[in-house]
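Quick one, tokens below:
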């Protein structure tokens, strides 16, 4: 590697004799073979372009491609000493560059990281990934900085996602009424309307499901909540005609329409004999519900031929499903208090929302600066200075000057924080990791 005359990086090391004997005869002068001129190659491994050429030399030598087969070959020990020494020097140079410039390329959060970060920031479970375009991938990974580009279209989607998240976090109405009710599958649309004989019904409302065909999954259609939030479910079920073995069933949750995209809650086992109650809590959007489907049973066609009343194969008997929610320990919820603390709310009715309320302040500018500073510190994942938050505070003040309400002005500042590079990008500095980086 090196320049024959002058101070070469290879001089005085095992590299120089090897290069002189095996490389420079072909890779020097005005017409070097392979257009790789080692006698003019910059010796400093700190230079990235130069280091790329040295890496090529290492790979060709280690693979036995250099020197060519018709040239004198280096001995095994000589070749090993050369490649080991060069590899070590390359590793050292690359490590020094990472220390000087940072650990990785500055990159933005991918869709999954964004959704999780907003969840931790606001304390709400909102499916934001679906609002954002798919992330580009590199080498099979969607968290590589070079592939995660930013466009005006993406920023528009980030604004939409930020508004959606703030809508879920901020309480603009009275506490939703609590649903606490027991339902029977005999009241569901699927059990009542199907023409296939796959459900065995009893007078007490118990329904036994014998088919695992997807179109005979049963959605809890009587439960159609108007409010988003966390709901607790309890399902009482048992296995019947199963030779003492349990019957597994899956539960999905979501908008059970042709265009819906439910998510899997989990798989559960119903034991043979006496019923067992399973309990879980799930986040639901308005008009979402749950759906049950037994696993590993017969097809609907096979059961229908015999009829559920005469069918003697295994089935899933569901006694009842209890629902409680939306669950709130206090009102306004924790997500609201994370932003506005204990600031009071006042009536702010809107079209079709006569009970709507908004946060108000007796000292809007002081309260806005305090809210934005505290929010930015958590959003930026580091301490913030007055200069860091000044643009966002100025945005809030401009909205107040335009006669926007206090809450509307603060929302504008929070949305700007959530679409800023300090929030959307991971700024990993060189040196020892601090608590914020961890």
């Amino acid at each position: 590697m090196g320049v024959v005359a002058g101070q070469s990086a290879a001089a005085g090391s095992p590299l120089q004799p090897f290069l002189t004997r095996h490389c420079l005869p072909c890779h020097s002068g005005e017409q070097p073979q392979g257009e790789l001129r080692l006698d003019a190659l910059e010796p400093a491994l700190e230079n990235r372009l130069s280091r790329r050429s040295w890496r090529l030399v290492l790979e060709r030598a280690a693979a036995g491609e250099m020197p060519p087969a018709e040239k004198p070959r280096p001995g095994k020990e000589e070749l090993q000493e050369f490649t080991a020494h060069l590899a070590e020097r390359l590793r050292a140079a690359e490590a020094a560059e990472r220390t000087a410039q940072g650990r990785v390329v500055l990159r933005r959060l991918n869709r999954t990281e964004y959704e999780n970060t907003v969840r931790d920031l606001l304390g709400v479970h909102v499916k934001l990934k679906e609002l954002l375009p798919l992330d580009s991938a590199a080498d099979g990974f969607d968290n590589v900085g070079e592939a995660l580009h930013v466009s005006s279209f993406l920023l528009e989607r980030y604004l939409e996602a930020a508004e959606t998240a703030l809508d879920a976090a901020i309480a603009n109405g009275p506490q939703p009424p609590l649903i606490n009710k027991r339902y029977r599958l005999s009241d569901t649309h699927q059990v009542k309307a199907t023409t296939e004989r796959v459900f065995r019904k009893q007078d007490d409302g118990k329904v036994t499901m014998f088919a695992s065909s997807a179109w005979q999954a049963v959605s809890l259609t009587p439960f159609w909540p108007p409010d988003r939030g966390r709901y607790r479910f309890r399902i009482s079920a048992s296995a019947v005609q199963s030779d003492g073995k349990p019957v597994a069933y899956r539960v999905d949750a979501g908008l059970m329409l042709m265009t819906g995209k439910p998510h899997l809650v989990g798989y559960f086992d119903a034991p043979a004999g006496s019923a067992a109650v399973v309990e879980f809590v799930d986040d639901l959007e308005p008009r979402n519900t749950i759906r049950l489907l037994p696993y590993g049973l017969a097809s609907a066609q096979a059961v229908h031929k015999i009829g559920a009343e005469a069918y003697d194969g295994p089935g899933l008997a569901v006694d009842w499903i209890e629902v409680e929610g939306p669950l709130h320990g206090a009102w306004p919820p924790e997500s609201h208090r994370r932003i506005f603390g204990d600031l009071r709310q006042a009536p702010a009715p809107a079209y079709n929302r006569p009970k709507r309320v908004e946060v108000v302040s007796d000292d809007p500018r002081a309260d806005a600066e305090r809210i934005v500073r505290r929010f930015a510190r958590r959003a930026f994942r580091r301490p913030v200075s007055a200069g860091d938050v000044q643009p966002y505070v100025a945005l809030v003040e401009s909205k107040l000057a335009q006669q926007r309400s206090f809450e509307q002005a603060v929302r504008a500042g929070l949305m700007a924080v959530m679409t800023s590079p300090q929030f959307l990008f991971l700024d990993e500095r060189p040196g020892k990791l601090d608590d914020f980086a961890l």
